[in-house]
Amino acid sequence: MSNVFLSILVFGGFSVGIWFSYRLFMRGDTNAERVAKHLPADFKPEWSWRYGDTYVGYESASDRLAIVDYPHGTVVKPRDVESIEAYDDGELGIVHRWIGITVSQQPKRYRLWCGMSVSRREAVLTHLKGILAAR
Questions:
Q1: Residue segments in the chain with a per-residue pLDDT below the cut of 50
Q2: pTM for the whole structure
Q3: Element (H, E) at 92
């Protein structure tokens, strides 16, 4: 009985310690907060995509495209996008799906992470190409 109690106490102690260190050290540094720091306060997108610490959103009312590839972020007009391409980046057999966006200002290249899903990347790429074609 004492072994069970000791195991519960150790597990609970680790759980509280992990939770406390997360609250203490990760405050203001989660992926959503990283993205939000790079967006204008008045930006209200009709369409957006966030995965990890990468983001793209389009606001049609002001014709603005916000792109965040942490630690960089920019807001551009769709006509300022020079190119958009899909590519894969693999290491040790794990393939990550990316969308590369080239804009006319520095830094020129932004990347959107789509995890490991080809269908997810294709859906985002199709929507972005539709936005850029309407410019």
A1: none
A2: 0.78
A3: none
In the block, which residue shows the tokens 């597990």? 11
DSSP tally for the chain: helices H, then strands E: 3, 7
Distance CA 53, CA 61 (A): 25
List of residues 6+ apart from 51 with CB closer than 8 A: 112, 113, 114, 115, 120
How far is residue 61's CA from residue 45's CA, in Å, rounded to a whole number?
A: 9
The conformation of residue 75, written as its DSSP 8-state character, comes to: E
Q: Please count the other Cβ atoms lying within 10 Å of the Cβ belonging to residue 123.
A: 13
CB 70 within 8 A of CB 35: yes
The three-state secondary structure class of 105 is coil
Contact call for residues 114 and 121 (beta carbons, < 8 A): yes
List the beta bridge partners of residue 75: 66
What is residue 45's predicted lDDT score, i.e. its pLDDT? Answer: 94
